[in-house]
Amino acid sequence: MKGYLYIFGTILFTIYGQIILKWRITKLSWNMPDGNLAEMVRAYLSLLFDPFILSGFFSAFLASICWTLAMTKYEITFAYPFMSLSPAIVFLLGILFLNETYTFGKVIGLLLIIGGIIITVEL
How many domains does the chain contain in total? Predict the structure, then answer.
């Protein structure tokens, strides 16, 4: 059972990191400038030290720790298909919290991902 917690910890921390980065970049209306390298580095560093952005990077680090622990419990061929849940959950959260658009094709793709996970893990 602990192994599943590690897998779902990986998914949770990965999703948090992606959603918080997108939310914060949008909230700040941040764009990488087209100027010289010094301007680009300065702009990126100002974003990098934002507390929300840092929390997203820290979340990715925690996801890596959870994944390392999951690898001590399961074969990668068993555990990795669960990672396909991340795009599906991000899709739903993006619609709910980030006002992202969805299309019929995206919904069909989401259903195919879920079906693929079930087939891979169960058969």
Answer: 1
